[in-house]
Amino acid sequence: MITLCYANGTAALAPHILLEDAGAEYETRLVDFSATEQQSPDFLAINPKGRVPALITPKGTLTETPAILAFITQIYPHANLAPSDAFDFAEAQAFNLYLAATVHVNHAHKQRGSRWTKDEAAQEKMRETVPANMTECARIIEQHYLKGPWVMGDTYSMCDPYLFVISRWMKADGVNLDDFPAITAHFAAMQERPSVQKIMRIHT
Fold it and tell me: Which residues of the chain fall short of a pLDDT of 50?
């Protein structure tokens, strides 16, 4: 049995959806960020970084969203949630890593500026850059990554729940999604999926 540690409003939504897509048997553990449970000794023993998602497996704990998504596709290969071709798989990984290393970081500048500086004025400057930076990320995704109707083209994959998470953040970060019809169509298609509807009733 595997256990997904998650918190509402976080990137853990992506692997939670993918576990449903895979038909996985799994348990969940809600980490209460409002009570700073992510900094508790109990949770730090699971993930010393104090973040979610964390996936507890019989072989150990995995962290970082792209790694967890890829792992799910590999332990449930019958679900066909990742490309089988080596180059296509690398493309899917490149997309998920772009979301993790660039887009997520730009988003974090809005509420997590203290990770980079304790200067309140500098943190405010970071917050001011978020709409423009996230809009630029949306442009790159729209023009260079999103093949449509799904990220990898005609086939749904591990990339799609992650983009769904990011799209939700973009709306809150001041991105005008009307300017990005492919992302908007992808978001609407994700909302129609039974796995998404089920998990969104949990991630409130």
Answer: none
User: What pLDDT shows up at residue 126?
Assistant: 87
Amino acid (1-letter code) at residue 78 = H
For 38-95, write each residue's pLDDT tens digit. Answer: 999 999 999 999 999 999 999 999 999 999 999 999 999 999 999 999 999 999 999 9
Backbone phi and psi for residue 28, each to the nearest 5 degrees, phi listed first: -130, 155
What are the DSSP calls for the chain, one per residue? Answer: -EEEEE-TTSTTHHHHHHHHHHT--EEEEE--GGGTGGGSHHHHTT-TT--S-EEEETTEEEESHHHHHHHHHHH-GGG--S-SSHHHHHHHHHHHHHIIIIIHHHHHHHH-GGGT---HHHHHHHHHHHHHHHHHHHHHIIIII--SSBTTBSS--THHHHHHHHHHHHHHTT--GGG-HHHHHHHHHHHTSHHHHHHHTT--
pLDDT at 117: 87
73-101 in b/e form (b: 16+ CB < 10 A) is beebeebebbbeeeeebebbbebbebbbe
Q: What is the pTM of this model?
A: 0.96
**Inter-residue contact 84 to 49 (CB < 8 Å):** no
Contact predicate 110/173, CB 8 Å:
yes
Residue 102: how many CB atoms within 10 A of its CB? 14
Q: What pLDDT was estimated at residue 182?
A: 98
